[in-house]
Design goal:
Layout lengths: L3 H7 L7 H14 L12 H17 L5 H20 L9 E4 L2 E5 L23 E4 L5 E3 L11 H7 L37 E2 L6 E2 L7 E3 L2 H7 L5 E3 L1 H10 L5 E2 H4 L3 H4 L1 H21 L2 H5 L18 E2 L1 H9 L1 H20 L1 H4 L21 E3 L6 E3 L11 H23 L1
Helix pairs in contact: 2-3, 3-4, 5-7, 10-13
The structure holds zinc ion (6 copies).
The site of one zinc ion (ZN) has 6 residues, from strand 12.
Function: Positively regulates lysosome peripheral distribution and ruffled border formation in osteoclasts. Involved in bone resorption.
InterPro entries: C1-like_sf (IPR046349), DEF8 (IPR051366), DEF8_C1 (IPR047983), PKC_DAG/PE (IPR002219), RH_dom (IPR025258)
Family: Belongs to the DEF8 family.
């Protein structure tokens, strides 16, 4: 949306009166009121211009008139605002470390940010502001020294596990009717300040520490397969955002029953098992390494490490169907390399030793069974249960027995 003030300034205030312009600009500056639905960026020059126009208007207006008095008050307010918006220090350090946050000075002139400390707008054009490179906490330079919340990044690094009880409330009385974070007095009646519950921690917070942000709650996903975003406090929001891609959920242990109820999970588990079976091909194939095939999994590298750890992002994408699509595609690309495109990988296929018929088999083919002891691959119908003896294993046993008896004969001879 085009900034109304810019239009006005560009047209050199032709269509509307100076008085209307001043009223408009004043309203915006003093009350942070959006004009035509958007906040308008005012730089220090525009503010100075408004002050000059104000001064000129005071001289032009009839002495002691109501309008003149009103303009004087406006002039005072505009000057105070200018003072307030000017940076206290011009050359502030680029990096500041506070309570384990690593604050880096921002160059962006965006004005859509809100300070996480004082909850007011950051005027990027004229104010210095910092963002923590670890947890993305944003803050005015002037608010930096007032911060009392440690960086949640360190919590993610040191203790990366989720609260897995659904909204574990302890009650406002146990919190002494105070915000769980900053200890400001709060109550459910809103006196002296509104108590807002965080669905992740179950605790209550004041409106400075809880902005009614929403997030998917891991406990609700794990126990109810429920993905509706719930209201959370600022620090939970930051923590959950940082934890989102981390594979810390061992579904099989936390809620094994999920696999009985969620079909998509079974499908993903099979795809992941196949990808693990394909991994040995790729790490021994120069071509696959050069093509960086495994990197197609992007930020889901845990899929080539194990098949039972999930990140919350994985579960969200499983529920939306996104993961099934992308993983099936990757599975197809991987299988194509091994079975069709690459001679080296193809040569590592198996002939079913039980029927000695049919195509070359690979362990990730859907109609195969793999011997748990020697990893030989057979048709599933040929190796249909555990009572079938694996010919490769049988040969190995025979060989061992032969070597052992040979050894005994040698020992007896001497
Ligand atoms: Zn601030
Ligand atoms: Zn931080
Ligand atoms: Zn608070
Ligand atoms: Zn290959
Ligand atoms: Zn067979
Ligand atoms: Zn075997």
């Amino acid at each position: 949306m085009t900034c109304l003030c810019t239009i006005i300034l560009k047209k050199k205030i032709q269509k509307i009166t100076l008085w209307d312009f001043l009223k408009l600009i004043y309203l915006q500056i003093m009350m942070n009121v959006p004009v035509q639905g958007s906040f308008v960026a005012l730089d220090i020059e525009q503010l100075k211009m408004a002050i000059e126009e104000c001064k000129r208007l005071i001289l032009e207006l009839p002495e002691h008139s109501e309008r003149q008095k009103d303009t004087v008050v406006k002039l005072i307010h505009l000057r105070l605002k200018l003072q307030e918006l000017k940076d206290p220090e011009e050359d502030e350090p680029n990096l500041r470390v506070l309570l384990e946050h690593r604050f880096s000075k921002e160059k962006s002139k965006s004005v859509k940010q809100t300070c996480d400390k004082c909850s007011t707008i950051i005027w990027g054009l004229i104010q210095t502001w910092y963002t923590c490179t670890g947890c993305y906490y944003r803050c005015h330079s002037k608010c930096l020294n007032l911060i009392n919340k440690p960086c949640v990044r360190s919590k993610v690094s040191h203790k990366s596990e989720y609260e897995l009880s659904i909204c574990p409330e302890i009650g406002l009385d146990r919190q002494d009717y105070r915000c769980a974070e900053c200890r400001t007095p709060v109550s459910l009646r809103g006196v002296p300040s509104e108590a807002r519950q965080c669905d992740y921690t179950g605790q209550y917070y004041c409106s400075t520490c809880h902005w009614n942000d929403t997030a998917v709650i891991p406990a609700r996903v794990i126990h109810n397969w429920e993905f509706e975003p719930r209201k959370v406090c600022r620090s939970s929001m930051r923590y959950l955002a940082l934890m989102l891609p981390r594979p810390v959920l061992k579904l099989r242990e936390i809620n094994p029953l999920l696999f009985n109820f969620v079909e998509e999970l079974v499908e993903i588990r099979k795809l992941r098992q196949d990808i693990l079976l394909m991994k040995p091909y790729f790490i021994t194939c120069k071509e696959a390494m050069e093509a960086r095939l495994l990197l197609q999994l992007h930020d889901r590298q845990h899929f080539v490490e194990n098949n039972d750890m999930y990140s919350l992002q994985d579960l969200i994408d499983i529920s939306s169907g996104r993961l099934s699509c992308s993983l099936t595609e990757i599975h197809t690309t991987f299988a194509k390399h091994i079975k069709l495109d690459c001679d080296r990988c193809q040569a590592k296929g198996f002939m079913c030793e039980l029927c000695k018929e049919g195509d070359i088999l690979f362990p990730f083919d859907s109609h195969t069974s793999v011997c748990h002891d020697c990893s030989a691959v057979f048709h599933r119908d040929c190796f249909y249960d555990n009572s079938t003896t694996c010919p490769k294993c049988a040969r190995m046993t025979e060989l061992t027995l032969f070597q052992f008896s040979g050894l005994r004969k040698m020992v007896a001879r001497y």
